[in-house]
Amino acid sequence: MNVDTRARQAATDVLAAVDVMRRSPAGIESRAGSIEGFRTFEARRRRTQRAVAVVVAVAIAALGFAGLLRAFRSAPVPANKITPDNVNRLEVAWRGSIPRADGAVVGEGYVVAYAYPTDNISGFLEDCASRGGDCAPLWTADVTVGEDGTLSSTPVISDGHVLVGGERCGPTGELKEGECASELYSFPLDCRTDGQECPPRWVAPKAGGVLMMGSVATDGTYVYASGNQLDVYRFDCGEAGATCEKAWTRPAGSFGPVLWEDTVIVAQDPGHLAAFDVDCRSNGGECEPLWRAKLRSYGEPVVADGIVYISDWGVVAAYPVDCGTQNTVCEPLWAETWAEDVWVAKPLVSDGILYVLADRFVPSDDVVCGSGSCVPLGTHVWTYHAYSVDCVAAGDPCQPLWTTETRERGLTPTQGHGQIDGAGSGRFYITVSDRSPGASARLLVFDSRCRTDGGACTPDWTAPIATSESTLLVGHDLVFISEGREVLAYAADCGTSGETCEPIWRAPLPAGTTELVIDGDKLLFGSKEDGLTVFATDGEVTSEEGGG
Q1: Domains, the chain
Q2: How many CB atoms within 10 Å of residue 67?
Q3: Stretch 367-377: mean pLDDT
Q4: Taking all residues of the chain, what is their mean pLDDT, rounded to a whole number?
């Protein structure tokens, strides 16, 4: 499973659990073993933030890992970018001297690692050493207060700063014991070089105290923070630790946000997709949407080429970003529907194709019991659909270009909601497993345009993997898979006829490796037990900056 997908998957599981309860209150207790604590949307906020902050902010590094691979401000594009031709020359370039790294983001010549339960972030130069050297962090920052405080969003790097959400928990200030509130911080990337604590550039209290789903985004002018409501701050709203006030806000629980030109789009409770002009207000007041659309429950939007895609129970729909003004109620440009008990995962757009996954649960006669209640076991049937984005954008009644189906047995209704693991290099990637005795997990790789007649596709190639929870990363015509104490690399085009491929590179990993990210000539791994490890194609410093 790749890091972007883990983020989406964590959010998907929470939203699905919440919506199962909304739909069937009588069924809450029967599913207590899977979704205990999510009693209602309001009552779940504190627990959601506690559970989801750890799961989602580490996981949604979709957003943190796959989505934050940006060009460096101070470093040239590496001449030795990782490719299938030079991947076998990867070696450890440096290790970050921190006890734990659950994830990292890369950008503008810096690496920012973050860790639980220490709940701090650490900044490094991306080329701080070579040939296996150890690097101490340039600076650290603790963004939590109190024993129960935790990181509440994945860090975001933009224009010389890192944005991250943290949490204060009482007893402190106005907060009583057991009460917590989120805050949004901005830190300069170059704030220190001596390894000491970095003071924030500014701090923004999150209205209502909840910042969740790892959702912080910026366009360089504003910073958008969702959670119990959408709050928007100016990127340059303060200096020297100033407390920032909102530019504008929109009450209602929010998931997203995503940006397209001068529009920010979020999914909001209860069951609405909403789009706002980023400049709608500047005095902290409440904004009305440009347009909105009704959802069956909850979803998380994605946007590509001016089209917003969002999934929901039994439906995926597409809306033009500019479909209305002045709180217009919009109808979808295009939609595909299934039965309302079919969960549709967050869609993915790549190489001109919209990928959609519909997850149908088929119960068996088996049950699992605990805490005085029982839930059925059964099979999740995951059907993947590929649509042409040109057809969707035209609003035509699109038929899938192709489909494929996988199954996983031995799960409860709220376990294992399917996910789209990755796409790129003209291919589509799925990790599958079967919990039946003797069954194994596999990576399946498909040509993204294997058919155009709606028929079922078969894999171009496969590879055995330790588990469907293995971390998968696609980039630079390569597929990396971390499997416990080892990382494997495969050429994306290693097969075309269903053959089983062999890795073209492998290397040992520290214990407790969590996530990985590829950026130019670097491959980075976070470890719960051994900090940060950075591989490079030749171990040499390629940036004009160095040192550390």
Answers
A1: 3-536 (2.130.10.10)
A2: 17
A3: 87
A4: 78
